[in-house]
Specification:
Blueprint (H helix, E strand, L loop, with lengths): L13 E5 L4 H12 L3 E6 L2 H11 L5 E5 H7 L2 E4 L6 H7 L8 E4 L4 E4 L2 E4 L7 H8 L4 E4 L6 H5 L8 E6 L3 H12 L4 E7 L4 H18 L11
Parallel strand pairs: 1-2, 1-4, 2-3, 4-5, 5-8, 9-10
Antiparallel strand pairs: 6-7
Helix pairs in contact: 4-5
Length: about 220
């Protein structure tokens, strides 16, 4: 379904995607722009973000900028950056992101010959680390378990998966659930408070194992809701 009409709580908001030139960021930007939302891609290299935005121009309103510029422009700011640069980037944007809804989508994962595995995080999870750094922001965790391959594929019209949304701010989690709902086939569901983010982030390692074994792009569905 589309929430991009005048009655949508998202219709007047700009969605920023930090790390928007990577597969997950590009894919989410594609889906939100296709739904009629205003999207700005952020990157360490603003010219690279602008080039990526040009490739998505046909699907909707997408523009490129530096991560700092995108963070300033966004009403809802998604963090889709590599784990090893997560804390450093957020620390540099504390003031810019104050009072904004910040959606952490990062999965702290390692890889070895046995496959993907969850990395320990001092604060408990990437989402909790974001909340510890961005003390003046409204931090939510979401979009951890969605296949970047499906998001990016223009031939895939529906991304049939549930998105677990985690946070301690009811208004912010409701807004991010609505954001997930704009993508056909996708459904945003409240998944618990920030303290429960670790297992949702870590579950991505299990999905990677499923995908490798069955040559699939598996997602998550919650039954009886």
């Amino acid at each position: 379904m589309s929430e991009s009409d005048e009655t949508s709580p998202l219709s007047d908001l700009t969605i920023a995607v930090l790390g928007g030139t990577g597969p997950q960021g590009r894919g989410l930007a594609r889906r939100f722009a296709t739904a009629g939302l205003d999207v700005v891609l952020g990157s360490r290299d603003a010219s690279r973000a602008a080039s990526t935005a040009e490739t998505l121009a046909a699907v909707g309103r997408v523009r490129g900028a530096s991560n700092a510029e995108a963070a300033a422009a966004g009403d809802i700011v998604l963090v889709v950056v590599p784990w090893d640069g997560h804390a450093e980037l957020l620390a540099s944007l504390v003031d810019v992101l104050a009072d904004k809804v910040v959606v952490d989508c990062v999965n702290p994962l390692g890889f070895d010959k046995q496959g993907a595995y969850a990395l320990p995080v001092e604060q408990g999870s990437a989402t909790q680390q974001a909340a510890a750094i961005l003390t003046r922001s409204r931090v939510v965790g979401a979009f951890h378990n969605v296949s970047a391959v499906l998001l990016e594929d223009p031939e895939v019209e529906r991304v049939d998966t549930d998105v677990l949304v985690l946070g301690d701010d009811r208004e912010a989690t409701d807004l991010v659930q609505a954001l997930a709902d704009v993508v056909p086939g996708m459904r945003g569901l409240f998944g618990g408070r920030l303290r429960n983010a670790h297992q949702v982030e870590a579950f991505t390692a299990n999905l990677i194992s499923v995908n490798r074994r069955y040559k699939a792009h598996a997602g998550l569905r919650v039954t009886d809701v």
